[in-house]
Amino acid sequence: MDRIKMTTPLVEMDGDEMTRVLWKMIKDELIEPYVDLKTEYYDLGLEHRNETNDKVTADSAEATKKYGVAVKCATITPNAARVKEYNLKEMWKSPNGTIRAMLDGTVFRTPIVVKGIEPVVKCWKKPITIARHAYGDVYKSVEMKIPGAGKAELVFTDENGNETRELIHNFNGAGVIQGQHNLNSSIESFARSCFNYALDLKQSLWFATKDTISKKYDHTFKDIFAEIYENEYKEKFEAAGIEYFYTLIDDAVARVMKSEGGFIWACKNYDGDVFSDMVSSAFGSLAMMTSVLVSPSGVYEYEAAHGTVQRHYYKYLKGEETSTNSVATIFAWTGALRKRGELDGISELCDFADRLEKAVISTIESGKMTKDLAAITELENPVVLNSQDFIKEIKNTLDKM
Ligand code: NAP
Ligand code: MG
Tens digits of per-residue pLDDT, 192-205? Predict the structure, then answer.
């Protein structure tokens, strides 16, 4: 059989621990036998990040800007224990944080739905994608404890030294205050990423804030989304048969719980933090989620939403059997290959990505799965496979297809 040819390389970002082990198995068993894989390889494993003083991370983000599509393995974000374990020169920053800052993107997370692992919310028939704004608000706030009576004010000093003041509160006793900010440029990027992704998926976009209470802060989010939609996307949305829908956050929550899914839910930073955990746990597990960073300029980075599964890796190193779920990592590869196929007009590559995803889903639906899924499935007598055998079983299914 002739392998599928690629014209532009994928940016391949290798990672750490158990996911690095899975990464190689996935390439060897599920991709390279079928695709004449072209990648520009960056080793983001912690040892190599340390050797390059983390330059490799920035280089991989630059390459992503150049080529447009990357696939990333989970990586260790160093803490004090990792600095010791790997004898690091520095406590290097989170690679995801570095890449996100350089690409200025929004992260979209969608559950992978299979029969036998049913969402706990019974009316959810289709996946709900969460788009989380990844800048500002409470994550970049400053806070103060107020010890006792006194006046707290917001003060803005412009470049010429002119002050604008707003009274926060005249305190009679102790209390707390908090100052948050966001940037119009960041909200604009967030909005464009969401509108582009909705067009990509041909799904409607929901957005919600608390603009009735927060008449300047949240209202600015609402206004920026509305203006960009009217000026740049309305016609495209109408042509695609999808809608942009704005409502209040509490109303959105009530509607989401009664919906059948199948839309993108854009969330402010805090709402996205909270509701992405709600949606992912209601649908099953982090190992059954796709995750993609989309930049406003239309650059895509696909990854798994979970970490490097350290506990399993130490078992693997001791020669013990592991049953680590590779689905999210496989879907990172299929997402990237499909996007590359779309951009380069290689329909065989898109078809291959579709087929591999179907093979994964039908393997699980036939009752063969990893331990984490066996624990939550409604299928009777699931067959629990180890990490390697699960991937081999997917290959069997794929070959039959
Ligand atoms: P984790 O790797 O997500 O794993 C936490 C636990 O969740 C595992 O011990 C396992 O539970 C379960 N789990 C997660 N993914 C699984 C999978 N694919 N298959 C089966 N079970 C899975 O989080 P962590 O252990 O807290 O973090 C390990 C490292 O990952 C850290 O150094 C962190 O910095 C990094 N991290 C990276 C990313 C990223 O690159 N995107 C994201 C988060 C964390 P059981 O042990 O009970 O089986
Ligand atoms: Mg969280």
Answer: 999 999 999 999 99
Q: Tell whether pTM > 0.70.
A: yes
Identify whether the C-beta of residue 157 lies closer than 8 Å to the C-beta of residue 163.
yes
Q: Return the closest-CA partner of residue 342 out of 263, 62, 334.
A: 334
User: Cα 370 vs. chain centroid, distance in angstroms?
Assistant: 22
Place of tokens 């608390």: 210
> 308, 329, 364, 377: which to mutate for ligand 1, most atoms within 8 A of CB?
308
Q: Residue whose CA is closest, atom 31 of ligand 1?
A: 76
Out of 96, 306, 320, 369, mutate this one to test ligand 1's pocket (max ligand atoms within 8 Å of CB): namely 306
Does ligand 1 have an atom closer than 6 angstroms to the CB of 91?
no
Identify which ligand lies nearest to the alpha carbon of 279: 2
For ligand 1, is residue 269 a contact (CB within 6 Å)? Answer: no
> In whole angstroms, how large is the CA radius of gyration of the chain?
23
**Mean pLDDT taken over the chain:** 95
265 CA distance to ligand 2 middle (Å): 16
Ligand minimally distant from the alpha carbon of residue 139: 2
Ligand 1 atom 13: residue of nearest CA: 309
DSSP string for 177-218: EEE----HHHHHHHHHHHHHHHHHHT--EEEEE-TTTSTTHH
Q: Is the dihedral of CA 127, 206, 109, 299 positive or negative?
A: positive
pLDDT band at 374 (very low <50, low <70, confident <90, very high): very high
CB 15 within 8 A of CB 45: yes
Percent of the chain scoring above 70 in pLDDT: 100
Give tens-digit pLDDT for 162-201. 999 999 999 999 999 999 999 999 999 999 999 999 999 9
Residue 102: per-residue pLDDT: 87
Which ligand does the CA of 277 lie closest to? Answer: 2
Helix (H) or strand (E) holding 355, with range, is: helix 347-365
Measured in Å, residue 271 CA sits from the centre of ligand 1 at 23
Q: Is the CB of 291 under 6 A from ligand 1?
A: no
Q: Give 309-354 as a 3 state SS string.
A: CHHHHHHHHCCCCCCCCCHHHHHHHHHHHHHHHHHHCCHHHHHHHH
